[in-house]
Specification:
This protein is mainly α. Helices cover 87% and strands 0% of the residues. The longest helix has 41 residues.
Length: 62
Amino acid sequence: MINYIKSSFEELSNNVSWTPRAELQRLAVVVLVFSILFSLAIWGADTVLSRIVQIYFNLING
């Protein structure tokens, strides 16, 4: 098990190509912006559909 962990750390340090910090920050901002936009779109759709269902049940119940 210890040998596996050592070889894993060695592979991470020698064979993995890491994204430069500036690009990583830029991509994190892009993900954050799209996550916020997507959550706002879902919130908007949920609000509209909720009001449609509420109006529908108000019309049925009189």
